[in-house]
């Protein structure tokens, strides 16, 4: 059996170009302080409100590599930590993304952590306390995390249920930051800048979103995200009629309920 170490080039995970990020509050300074003490961070907020963009921006600002993992319920601990693979030369250990991040000193961003099963989530425990270590049980190796390593998780409180939540023993290893859709003026700037539409159109899109967000819990599970507003603006900037663009991005993806669609379409028609 040949065990070949996989050597990873940390540079591939460095973000070279400044991601566009519009600060919404004190989050940049707070995150910098949390990073300075390598505090594991939990970023909470609805889908598409800027959590991932913020983490990308912070990784760029701090000049650290970023490794992102989209969590899902089929994910196993081995998907995070690594596994032995068989190839023509024998057996080869392949580090998982969490292990790579701990070795090279990356920020490891576990997106939508609640999607992962609890037996998967517990592998992060030794990395998130004073030990800052990761046991690779199958390989018989104990990794000491690189001094630059930090773990960040995101989670959407809207999807919280008894079935899908983090255990207290996991939660209480993180500092938390609440995110929400940006305030009106900031969201208008984001939509205009990201999509290329004029400010007046961006304002209308944000107004529609505000109406729809009021319907959360009254027929809609989740409000229209900033991401969808950007999509809408991108279509409009490409010459698609605003009504069609809004229908494609702000109505159809959100709900299949005919009454709710009528309500949303009516909101769109008020502005366009
Ligand atoms: P999520 O909260 O699901 O991780 P993202 O970070 O992917 O959401 O944000 C979705 C989109 O919204 C981004 O691609 C970006 O266009 C836009 N966005 C949201 N908030 C901001 C912000 N503060 N600055 C710049 N872009 C933002």
From TrEMBL:
Record has Nucleotide-binding as a keyword: yes
InterPro entries listed in its UniProt record: ATPase_dyneun-rel_AAA, CbbQ/NirQ/NorQ/GpvN, CbbQ_C, P-loop_NTPase
ATPase dynein-related AAA domain span: 41-174
Superkingdom of origin organism: Bacteria
Keyword Nucleotide-binding: yes
Keywords on record: ATP-binding, Nucleotide-binding
Annotated GO MF terms: ATP binding; ATP hydrolysis activity
Domain CbbQ/NirQ/NorQ C-terminal intervals: 187-270
UniProt-listed PANTHER family: DENITRIFICATION REGULATORY PROTEIN NIRQ (PTHR42759:SF7), MOXR FAMILY PROTEIN (PTHR42759)
The family this protein is said to belong to: Belongs to the CbbQ/NirQ/NorQ/GpvN family.
Protein name, as recorded: Nitric oxide reductase NorQ protein
Naturally occurring in which organism (per UniProt): Cocleimonas flava
């Amino acid at each position: 059996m040949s065990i070949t170490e996989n050597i990873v080039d940390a540079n591939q995970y460095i973000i070279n170009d400044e991601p566009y990020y519009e600060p919404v509050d004190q989050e940049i300074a707070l995150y910098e302080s949390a990073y300075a003490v390598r505090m594991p961070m939990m970023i909470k907020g609805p889908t598409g409100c800027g959590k991932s963009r913020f983490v990308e921006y912070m990784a760029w600002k701090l000049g650290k590599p970023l490794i992102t993992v989209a969590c899902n319920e089929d994910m196993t601990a081995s998907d995070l930590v690594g596994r032995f693979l068989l190839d023509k030369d024998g057996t080869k250990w392949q580090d998982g993304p969490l292990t790579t991040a701990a070795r090279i000193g990356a920020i490891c961003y576990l997106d939508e952590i609640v999607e992962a099963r609890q037996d998967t989530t517990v592998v992060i425990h030794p990395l998130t306390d004073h030990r800052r270590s990761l046991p690779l049980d199958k390989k018989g190796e104990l990794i000491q995390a690189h001094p630059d390593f930090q773990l960040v998780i995101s989670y959407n409180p809207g999807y919280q249920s008894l079935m899908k939540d983090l255990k207290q023993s996991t939660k209480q290893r993180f500092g938390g930051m609440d995110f929400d859709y940006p305030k009106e003026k900031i969201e208008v700037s984001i939509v205009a800048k990201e999509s290329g539409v004029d400010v007046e159109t961006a304002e209308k899109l944000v107004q529609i979103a505000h109406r729809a967000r009021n319907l959360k819990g009254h027929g809609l599970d989740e409000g229209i995200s900033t991401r969808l507003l950007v999509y809408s603006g991108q279509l409009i900037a490409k010459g698609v009629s605003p009504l069609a663009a809004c229908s494609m991005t702000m109505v159809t993806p959100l709900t299949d309920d005919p009454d709710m669609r009528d309500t949303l379409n009516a909101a769109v028609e008020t502005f366009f």
